[in-house]
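In this section we walk through a basic example: taking a raw amino acid sequence and producing a predicted 3D structure, encoded as discrete structure tokens. The instruction is simple. Fold the sequence below.
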Amino acid sequence: MNSLVDKYNIPGPRYTSYPTVPFWDEANFTAVKWKDSVIRSFNESNNTEGISLYIHLPFCEQLCTFCACHKRITKQHSVEVPYLESVLKEWDLYLQLFGKKPIIKELHLGGGTPTFFSPDNLRKLLEGIFEKSEIAEHPEFSFEGHPNNTTREHLQTLYDLGFRRCSFGVQDYDLEVQKAINRIQPFENVEKVTRWAREIGYKSISHDLVFGLPHHTWEKMEYTIRKTMELKPDRLAFYSYAHVPWIKGVGQRGFDENDLPSGEEKRRLYENGKKLLQELGYIEVGMDHFSLPHDDLYQSMVSGNIHRNFMGYSSSKTQLMIGLGMSAISDSWYAFAQNEKTVEDYQKRVEEGIIPVFRGHILDDEDLIIRRHILNLMCKLETSWDLQTGFPELENALEILKEMEKDQLVTLSENSIHITPKGRAFTRNVAMAFDLRMMRNKPETRIFSMTI
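The resulting token sequence is shown next.
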């Protein structure tokens, strides 16, 4: 395995989209084209599957130095109401495009720290969204909570509004690691919010763990996993730390890079962690996720309905996903669009009555074919092709994949590929073989985190 780590530990995307953001054709993108794609997608899918909403709530009271998200650090809670008013105004701009009430199938509150906002303000936001919408028969509503500031009132308020899944960012329980990433978070706080969520009735509770953080050793990682098992969350995100300080600036420079484990050590954390989680009853789902058998995420993998988008893995799929808020990314299937990346620019555009996108990508026919292959690999660990789903560089991709087949990472047939159990750790590398835009425009500088 060590030689494989040396061979395949290269910079690569996480593929929450294709094309990935660095390879968007921004020159060919316009707000008019974006709106047209939204209208098309809404008309095609709203009555059959509804739409998804992602709402970005960017405020945090302190900076965690492992975080690569778009956020704003402040302790001034006076920012809550003006920001939420802007989100509701942005929603009104999309409602004007739709022309009729959308059916909301999936909704996720991300950040930032959604639980930075008071329960009452979150209720007002969501009621403002819902009063002009219809709710699907079996909606999937979820939110991210910080164990240090999530209250029982937060959990009850969101439950009463239809939320049934919550995710808590744990990262790690070792104090040395917590100090390095500026995320001091006692186990007791996580235990408390998990217990409250179960008492209230949430059907799926998720914990986020991160491997490869500064000072990480297997002993520390094992300690965190075994502490997590005392609470037995329904699903787990087991993420590789993405060290991209050249993109995110000073935030990820809060520790000495020599404190980070090597690629070989990091892969050992993943392999040992995966083995322990499976021994404890969890099943690996897609990439970076584990689930107990009863959870919707595992069930969606079995049924073939699992999906992946900018919100990560989802047990349900909608063709249209609207991202509301600063830096949020939307997906109409035919196009991507990202909102302004500062709070001030975002609010200014909304106040001017303009949908606040500042860049995006219009997918061409080839993009749509490649997107389907990469989605298949990320969700189902396999894909196949015929005359309709072939592409010009298929032979080049197969040459790359033949090398991976020698390393027992994939199995190839005449018109299909399957990722082996040994190859799951290298799923990003397999997907890269299909990434035509990256092949044709190889970056001259490093723009992605390492795949391992």
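Looking at the output, two observations stand out. The two ends are 12 Å apart (CA to CA). The mean pLDDT is 91. In the next section we compare this with other chains.
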